[in-house]
Design brief:
Layout: E1 22-26, E2 58-65, E3 74-81, H1 84-101, H2 106-122, H3 129-138, H4 149-158, H5 165-183, H6 193-214, H7 219-224, H8 233-252, E4 277-278, H9 281-290, E5 298-299, H10 302-312, H11 316-328, H12 332-336, E6 343-344, E7 349-352, E8 355-359, E9 362-366, E10 375-378, H13 381-401, H14 422-435, H15 444-456, H16 461-468, H17 473-480, H18 485-507
Parallel strand pairs: 4-5
Antiparallel strand pairs: 1-2, 2-3, 6-7, 7-10, 8-9
Organism: Nocardiopsis changdeensis
Protein name: Site-specific integrase
InterPro entries: CB (IPR044068), DNA_brk_join_enz (IPR011010), Integrase-like_cat_sf (IPR013762), Integrase_catalytic (IPR002104), Integrase_recombinase_N (IPR010998), Integrase_SAM-like_N (IPR004107), Tyrosine_recombinase_XerCD (IPR050090)
Length: about 500
C-alpha cells in the first residue's frame, strides 16, 4: 500500500504537491491476518494526541525530478531516515542541486537529476553541491563525479591565486603542450606514476624524431620539424613539478578521492645544475675551428667582457645598460625595468624593486619573484660615472625632442624615451657580440660572469650573494666558485707550494 504524503510540518498534503517535495513516515508492520504491509495506516505511528511517535517507524521523503532524457516521469524517493530533520535536510539538498542547474541548458538539468537518481539507487551520499556547480561552470558532464586530469588541471590553474604572470604562462605551456595531451583523458583518481613516466618516454621519442629529422639530407624531412623544439631534461623536471603542484592541491581537496601524489613517485633522471663554463683559449680555438660550444651555460673572461663593452660604446643608447649588467650582474628584466627614482648616484646605490617580465611578446611590470630579489646594490666609481654620462645624454635628448619625448621614467630607454623590450635587448646583445668576434654566450651569461669575477676578486660570498639576489650563499658558492681557470690554477699552485716548503729541509 502506498503511504500518504505530508508537508514538512507533518500536515497531510495532496499528491499533486509532490513537485515541491514532501516528507512522510512509515513502518514495516504487517497485518496479522493478511501479512500485508500496514504502511502509513499503522496506529503505532502516532501517539494518542496525534503527534508522531518518536520510537516507531522511519522517516522518508520524495520529490518529483525533471523527466528523463526520453520524457519519462520520475521521483527521488528515500525511506529509512532516523528523523524528520534528516529527511528535510536531504530534501533541501536535492532542491539546491536542481536550482543549481536551473537556468542552464535543459540537458544539464536532466543530468543533475540523473546524478541524484543514481546516488539514491546506489545508496551513496548525494552529490556535493559545490562540485556540481563547479562542473556546470566548466561545461563538463556533471554525472562524472571525478574530474579528468584535463578538467582538474584547467580548473587548478584558473583558480591558482598569487601566481606571477611569467609563472602562470609557464604552467599553461606545460598543460597545453604536454600534460593535457598525454594525460588529460584519464580520470584523476586513475592517474598512476607509470602514466607520468610513459608521458616522459613519449616526449623523449619525439625528441629523437626531431633530432633525426634535423640531420636528414632531405629538405622536406627537415621542414617537418621546423620550429619544433627538443624538450630538455630540465624542462621535464619543471613539467613534473607543475603536475606535482596541481596534484598536491587535489590531495588536499576534501571533495576528491585522491590520497597519493603520483607525480612525486614518477621517476626521472636527476638533473644537476648546469654550472657555467668559461671561454678559455683552447675552447675559443676549437669554436673558431668547428663551432663547438662545450656547455649550455658559457661565460666570458674579464678580458672578453671588456672587449664586448668596448665594442658596445658604438651604441650609446645601449652601452650603459650592458655595462651595468656586466659589472653588477642584474637580470635582464631588472635592468630593463629600472626606474630613475630607484637610482641614487650621489650615494652610488640602486634599489632593485621592479622587473619587466616577458610573457610571449607581451611585457608585464612586476616585483622580483623572491624576497631576496628585492635588494640594494652598491655601484663602483666607474659605473657611477657611466650612469652620470648616460643621464646627461638622455636629458639633452629629452630637451631636444620636446613634446615627442615619452616620459617612461626608466633609466634605459630608446632615443624617444620609450623603454626597451627585453627581447630586443637580447637581440642587440647577440648582434654586438658577433660584431666583436666573441664566442657566443647568452645575455644572462653577463650576470654569470659578474658573479664569477666578483668571487675571483676575493669579494666575500655573502656580499656577492646579496647583490645578485640569491636566496642562499650556498647556491652562489656552488655555482660560481672557481669558474675561472686562473683562480683554480692559483689555488693548485698555492697548495703545491705548501708541500714543497715542507720537503725543503729534508732534502738538504
Amino acid at each position: 500500500m502506498r503511504c500518504a504524503h505530508h508537508y514538512p510540518g507533518g500536515e497531510r498534503g495532496p499528491v499533486s504537491t509532490v513537485r515541491e517535495g514532501s516528507t512522510f513516515k512509515r513502518c514495516t508492520c504487517r497485518h496479522p491476518d493478511t501479512h500485508t504491509p500496514v504502511g502509513a495506516r499503522c496506529p503505532k505511528l502516532r501517539r494518542r494526541n496525534g503527534t508522531w511517535s518518536s520510537t516507531h517507524g522511519r522517516w522518508g521523503y520524495q520529490i518529483e525530478l525533471p523527466p528523463t532524457a526520453d520524457g519519462k516521469r520520475r521521483q527521488a524517493r528515500k525511506v529509512g531516515l532516523a528523523s524528520q530533520e534528516d529527511a528535510l535536510t536531504e530534501l533541501a539538498h536535492i532542491k539546491i542541486l536542481l536550482e543549481t542547474a536551473h537556468g542552464d541548458e535543459p540537458e544539464t538539468l536532466v543530468r543533475v537529476a540523473d546524478l541524484i537518481q543514481t546516488a539514491l539507487r546506489a545508496r551513496t551520499p548525494l552529490p556535493n553541491v559545490e562540485e556540481v556547480r563547479r562542473r556546470i561552470n566548466l561545461g563538463v558532464d556533471v554525472r562524472t563525479t571525478v574530474p579528468t586530469v584535463a578538467e582538474w588541471l584547467t580548473e587548478w590553474l584558473k583558480g591558482k591565486p598569487g601566481l606571477a604572470e611569467g609563472t602562470r604562462s609557464s604552467y599553461a605551456g606545460h598543460l597545453r603542450n604536454h600534460l593535457i595531451p598525454h594525460l588529460g583523458q584519464l580520470a584523476l583518481n586513475k592517474l598512476q606514476a607509470r602514466h607520468v613516466e610513459a608521458m616522459f618516454a613519449t616526449i623523449e621519442e619525439n625528441n629523437e624524431h626531431v633530432l633525426e629529422c634535423r640531420e636528414s639530407s632531405d629538405p622536406q624531412v627537415r621542414a617537418q620539424v621546423k620550429g619544433k623544439r627538443v624538450t630538455s631534461l630540465s624542462t621535464k623536471h619543471r613539467i613534473r613539478a607543475t603536475l606535482r603542484s596541481a596534484l598536491s592541491d587535489a590531495v588536499r581537496s576534501p571533495e576528491l578521492p585522491i590520497t597519493v601524489n603520483v607525480a612525486s613517485h614518477a621517476r626521472l633522471p636527476s638533473c644537476p645544475r648546469k654550472k657555467p663554463l668559461v671561454w678559455t683559449t683552447d675552447r675559443v680555438t676549437k669554436w673558431h675551428k668547428d663551432g663547438t660550444v662545450p656547455g649550455e651555460v658559457m661565460v666570458w673572461t674579464p678580458d672578453q667582457t671588456t672587449a664586448f663593452l668596448t665594442h658596445a660604446r658604438k651604441y650609446p643608447w645601449l652601452y650603459a645598460l650592458f655595462h651595468l649588467i656586466a659589472i653588477k650582474g642584474l637580470r635582464r628584466g631588472e635592468a630593463v625595468g629600472l626606474p630613475w627614482r630607484n637610482v641614487r648616484l650621489t650615494d652610488g646605490q640602486v634599489d632593485i624593486t621592479t622587473q619587466i617580465v616577458q610573457v610571449g611578446w607581451k611585457t608585464i611590470t612586476s616585483t622580483p619573484k623572491s624576497d631576496a630579489g628585492s635588494r640594494t646594490i652598491t655601484l663602483d666609481a666607474t659605473t657611477v660615472r657611466v650612469l652620470k654620462r648616460w643621464r646627461r645624454h638622455q636629458l639633452e635628448t629629452k630637451l631636444a625632442a620636446g613634446k615627442d619625448w615619452v616620459n617612461s621614467g626608466l633609466v634605459f630607454t630608446r632615443e624617444n624615451g620609450e623603454g626597451w623590450h627585453p627581447a630586443e635587448v637580447t637581440d642587440w646583445f647577440n648582434r654586438i657580440g658577433r660584431a666583436a668576434d666573441l664566442p657566443p654566450i647568452g645575455l644572462h651569461g653577463l650576470r654569470h660572469g659578474a658573479a664569477s669575477t666578483a668571487l675571483a676578486a676575493g669579494v666575500d660570498v655573502k656580499v656577492v650573494s646579496a647583490e645578485l639576489g640569491h636566496a642562499t650563499t650556498h647556491f652562489t658558492q656552488d655555482t660560481y666558485q672557481t669558474v675561472f681557470p686562473d683562480v683554480a690554477k692559483a689555488a693548485a699552485e698555492a697548495t703545491a707550494a705548501m708541500f714543497t716548503a715542507n720537503r725543503a729541509p729534508a732534502t738538504r
